């Protein structure tokens, strides 16, 4: 009996040894095959693009709080997220963030520095004499606002004669032009900024500041807006005087209830902005595309998704307001400048509120030099657009800044944050 047990144990040991031997041989064979495939085809690295994380300040509130969807073009507050509103879910497999597309590489015109912004209601004032007034030391060119309505006079019929006239005038002065395309307004005293065939529900809606906003995520509005962008690119991208095209701020100026009633979701809006900006970059392959961002209702972190998606296309990112004392901008928008520094061209806009920014708790205005240094050193901008503001605001403390107060700063700092 004992011999039989020892024999069975011995057989088990032999079988295990044989099994281990064959296992080792199979591993060596698999390793050899793997090395052979690498030698033939090379190593292919598969990576999944990631969206850089928000800074700790921005992570405190990745959704827009009541009163913080700031409408930067005129400094009014947009309470588009009401108290108690449900926060939309983060991106899931059903609502994935946009993937990074292959870079659309090109050498774009790049004349950074100081530009003067002319409002759409005053763009008819541009004459040789006025441009001579604006051409000061350090001023590279003008950013001129045009409403979508004045460029598309009826569906598919465009009138770009005003832009052409301004390009001709600026070319004689060796200055550059940035075309600012408006689809949002801030005063009901003026007609809506959209073409007549797109005015009214569901394409253009009254907004909180008292003007009108295009429903950008509406499929009809989205398609027609891209059509005018393509036509502008076809006509002007090759003009050496054109520096680029600008798009209005991401804040819609609409209440969350109005937006939701008209099919809004943060994912749809995010993808609309990506589509529009990529379309612009492709149709302006030689020019700058300036994207004004500040707030995205319901999912503020999607600003980073958009920037990540359009950066390979050469799109520039910035904001409508340089306001060092703004709590909402410091918490929700300004962190993106640091996050994308060195990855994307950056810009800022000295709009009317920038000229009347007060140091917290005082009646002392930020000087134009202090405003410039904040934009240069904190926001890391390559371009600054200065509103042509020549008036003071009723009811404000004396000493409010005007455009002429910015001229010594512009002259002393013609170049900054150059590549």
Report on this structure.
With 419 residues, this protein is of the alpha/beta class. The protein is 37% helix and 14% strand. The chain has 14 helices and 12 strands. The strands form 3 sheets. The chain has an 8-stranded parallel β-barrel with strand order 1-2-5-8-9-10-11-12. Strands 3-4 form a two-stranded antiparallel ribbon. Strand 1, helix 3 (128-134) and strand 2 (139-147) form a beta-alpha-beta unit.
Count of DSSP strands: 12
Strand content is 5-15%
Strand arrangement within the widest β-sheet reads: 1-2-5-8-9-10-11-12
The CA-CA distance between the termini, in Å, is: 89 Å
The secondary-structure element order is: HHEHEHEEHEEEHEHHEHEHHEHHEH
Largest sheet: 8 strands, parallel, barrel
Count of separate DSSP helical elements:
14
The percentage helix is: 25-40%
Arithmetic mean pLDDT: 82
Summarize the SSE layout with pairings.
Elements: H1 2-41, H2 56-59, E1 113-118, H3 128-134, E2 139-147, H4 148-151, E3 152-154, E4 157-158, H5 161-172, E5 176-182, E6 204-206, E7 212-214, H6 219-236, E8 242-247, H7 256-261, H8 266-283, E9 288-292, H9 302-310, E10 316-319, H10 327-332, H11 335-340, E11 346-350, H12 352-355, H13 368-377, E12 383-387, H14 403-412
Parallel strand pairs: 1-2, 1-12, 2-5, 5-8, 8-9, 9-10, 10-11, 11-12
Antiparallel strand pairs: 3-4, 6-7
Helix pairs in contact: 6-8, 8-9
Throw out a few tags for this protein.
two-stranded antiparallel sheet, disordered N terminus, globular, single chain, 419 residues, 14 helices, 8-stranded parallel beta barrel, alpha/beta
